[in-house]
């Protein structure tokens, strides 16, 4: 690699002043470009783009993981997926999970950011505490909360007891298991949302707030008419990123419920894992993965199209 | 973060004697401030109590878990749960695996992203825009669509239960490349041009000018990658079923019992072992980490 230094330097001196006006490609530049960008691009092609294409192909096969026999079935897997009696529940669970974690996350995160943006003693520590769970392993967090949710002697059942409320059977009854995971997901991810909102709040120009105050706007009016519209791009960014990570979440479900009871916490992402690696139906799992990919693309595209127009960039 | 502008809305200047104004302000602010502090303390408790609970529970003996009323402090701070973790799974080996894979994975990711972004921004070739879009679009491709094809590739290569099997498929850096590119575009063009005129080739410009000017971004991308690599679960779980090459989060799930009777003390001890290292890194370097996560979110 060091061999490049003298020759590249020489060529740069020779043609430096006019290099921008001439669009002729110099072989040395080409070589250096390939050397620097090549490995990363090659890895992306091999481990991101190749599997993307291959997954579409796999989704047309009746094929089990590790087996040598594969039968081409066209859209058979998709037909089966759409007619499967489990599909409505998986879609509903996925939708409930995504809407509550994204919506709840944005609301609580914004509230937390507004609070931590106040001039309060100790808010630096509060910010640290709010954000800490975000960096922790989903598996460890899942296990910790499993213990807190333990219906017999978990912290939460005791706390509920103080109010005279009995603890629900979180692990084994249908709506509660999903609610439990949503709560833990929010606990873990709220700090991220709050942090991004906080950065956005601090970018709001003070003279705009002053102008609003001069016009007689109170705190809440200033927030509604000045601050929140200016947070548009941030909200937009968060909507996309939190939606993508919510739809792809896996660790917590794996650590806490394994998709149960009776599939009530099986999201589309979890279904791909179960079908692909537990039942071993790789073709069918690839069809679910493709459906999820199309949903993600559609949501991202829709958000880009619809919201981009309503977002005010300052 | 905390050096930022602190603002409370300034009251409209009206002709009241300054002393009275301050007093009135104090009177209206007091209940609001009280409520704000209360909410803040509540938020701190909600976020921290579970973690404190985990650390305390990791020292508790089995009978203490069934005690009513609840005991906050363990009766004695002995390490029997940790000893039991060590006797159930090769925790030392897993810890080393995790440390090694995290350092290697994050380091390579940063180097690959840095090199790729430099090429995209500073080297003039006709197809560099295409390469950038290739990187950008990769950010939108979800991991789950890649797992089955990548798994079969790794299995065909005979890389199941190997370090390279865990490491290599995740190395490509789309996020890092993107952040580095955004940062490079903001570098003062005059410095780069001066270096070029002085005869510094691309290789020297990268190491002598671009890298030193990008230390904060490099630190931020490194930290984000370290956190991601340390916590990665799904892929290492699929690729390893052997405790020799297994990483810590995967090993953790081996401790969960199948019949539902959890030994919480052992599980909390193991969870503490997974969370403490990354929590420490976070506490020491949180500003840099935060800078990395918020980069591109607000300005972009």
From TrEMBL, chain A:
Signal peptide: none annotated. It is a multi-pass membrane protein. It comes from the Bacteria. Its main location: membrane. It holds the Pfam family BPD_transp_1. GO terms for cellular component: plasma membrane. GO terms for biological process: transmembrane transport. Residues 1-18 have a biased composition (Low complexity). The chain crosses the membrane at residues 30-49, 90-116, 128-149, 226-247, 284-304. Keywords: Cell membrane, Membrane, Transmembrane, Transmembrane helix, Transport. CDD domains: TM_PBP2. It is found in: Cell membrane. The keyword Cell membrane applies. Residues 91-303 form the ABC transmembrane type-1 domain. The keyword Cell membrane applies. Residues 1-21 are annotated as: Disordered. Belongs to the binding-protein-dependent transport system permease family. PANTHER family: ABC TRANSPORTER PERMEASE PROTEIN (PTHR30193), INNER MEMBRANE ABC TRANSPORTER PERMEASE PROTEIN YCJO (PTHR30193:SF37). This is Binding-protein-dependent transport systems inner membrane component. It comes from Beutenbergia cavernae (strain ATCC BAA-8 / DSM 12333 / CCUG 43141 / JCM 11478 / NBRC 16432 / NCIMB 13614 / HKI 0122).
Automatic annotation (TrEMBL), chain B:
The chain crosses the membrane at residues 30-56, 99-123, 130-151, 163-180, 209-228, 264-285. Belongs to the binding-protein-dependent transport system permease family. It comes from the Bacteria. InterPro entries: MetI-like, MetI-like_sf. This is Binding-protein-dependent transport systems inner membrane component. Gene3D superfamilies: MetI-like. PANTHER family: ABC TRANSPORTER PERMEASE PROTEIN MG189-RELATED-RELATED, SN-GLYCEROL-3-PHOSPHATE TRANSPORT INTEGRAL MEMBRANE PROTEIN ABC TRANSPORTER UGPE-RELATED. GO terms for biological process: transmembrane transport. CDD domains: TM_PBP2.
């Amino acid at each position: 690699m060091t061999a490049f230094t003298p020759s590249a330097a020489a060529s740069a001196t020779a043609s430096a002043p006019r290099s921008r006006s001439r669009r002729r490609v110099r072989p040395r530049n080409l070589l250096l470009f390939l050397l620097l960008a090549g490995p990363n691009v090659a890895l992306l092609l091999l481990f991101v783009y190749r599997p993307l294409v291959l997954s579409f192909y796999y989704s047309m096969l009746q094929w089990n993981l590790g087996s040598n026999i594969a039968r081409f079935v066209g859209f058979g897997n998709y037909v089966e997926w759409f007619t499967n009696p489990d599909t409505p529940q998986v879609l509903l669970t996925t939708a409930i999970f995504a809407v509550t974690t994204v919506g709840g996350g944005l609301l609580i995160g914004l509230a937390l950011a507004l609070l931590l943006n106040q001039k309060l003693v100790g808010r630096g520590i509060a910010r640290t505490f709010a954000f800490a769970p975000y960096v922790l392993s989903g598996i460890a967090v899942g296990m910790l909360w499993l213990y807190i949710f333990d219906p017999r002697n978990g912290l939460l059942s005791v706390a509920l007891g103080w109010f005279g409320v009995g603890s629900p059977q979180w692990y084994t009854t249908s709506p509660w298991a999903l609610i439990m995971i949503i709560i833990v997901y929010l606990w873990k991810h709220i700090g991220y949302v709050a942090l991004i909102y906080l950065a956005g709040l601090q970018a709001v120009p003070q003279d705009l707030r002053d102008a609003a105050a001069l016009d007689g706007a109170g705190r809440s009016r200033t927030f509604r008419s000045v601050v929140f519209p200016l947070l548009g791009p941030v909200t937009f960014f968060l909507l996309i990123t939190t939606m993508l990570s919510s739809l792809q979440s896996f660790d917590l479900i794996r650590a806490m419920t394994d998709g149960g009871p009776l599939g009530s916490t099986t999201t589309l992402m979890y279904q791909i894992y179960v079908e692909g690696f537990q039942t071993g139906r790789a073709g069918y799992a690839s069809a679910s993965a493709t459906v999820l990919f199309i949903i993600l693309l559609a949501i991202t595209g829709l958000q880009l199209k619809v919201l981009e127009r309503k977002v005010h960039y300052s | 973060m905390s050096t930022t502008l602190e603002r409370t809305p300034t009251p409209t200047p009206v002709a009241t004697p300054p002393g009275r104004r301050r007093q009135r302000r104090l009177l209206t602010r007091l209940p609001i401030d009280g409520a704000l502090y209360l909410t803040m303390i509540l938020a701190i408790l909600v976020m921290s109590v579970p973690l404190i609970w985990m650390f305390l529970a990791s020292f508790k003996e089995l009978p203490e878990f069934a005690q009513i009323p609840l005991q906050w402090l363990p009766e004695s701070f002995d390490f029997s749960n940790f000893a039991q973790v060590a006797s159930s799974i090769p925790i030392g080996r897993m810890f080393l695996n995790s440390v090694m894979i995290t350092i290697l994975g994050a380091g390579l990711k940063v180097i690959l992203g840095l090199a790729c972004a430099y090429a995209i921004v500073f080297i003039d070739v006709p197809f560099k825009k295409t390469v950038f879009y290739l990187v950008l679009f990769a950010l939108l491709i979800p991991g789950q669509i890649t797992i089955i094809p990548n798994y079969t590739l790794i299995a065909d290569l005979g890389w199941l239960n190997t370090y390279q099997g865990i490491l290599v498929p995740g190395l490509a850096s789309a996020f890092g490349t993107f952040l580095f590119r955004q940062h490079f575009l903001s570098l003062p063009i005059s410095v780069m041009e001066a270096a070029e005129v002085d005869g510094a080739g691309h290789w020297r410009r990268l190491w002598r000018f671009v890298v030193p000017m990008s230390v904060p971004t490099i630190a931020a991308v490194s930290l984000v990658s370290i956190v991601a690599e340390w916590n990665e679960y799904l892929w290492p779980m699929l690729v390893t079923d052997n405790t020799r090459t297994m990483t810590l989060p995967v090993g953790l799930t081996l401790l969960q019992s199948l019949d539902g009777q959890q030994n919480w003390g052992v599980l909390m001890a193991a969870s503490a072992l997974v969370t403490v290292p990354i929590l420490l890194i976070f506490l020491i370097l949180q500003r840099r980490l935060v800078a990395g996560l918020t980069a591109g979110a607000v300005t972009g």
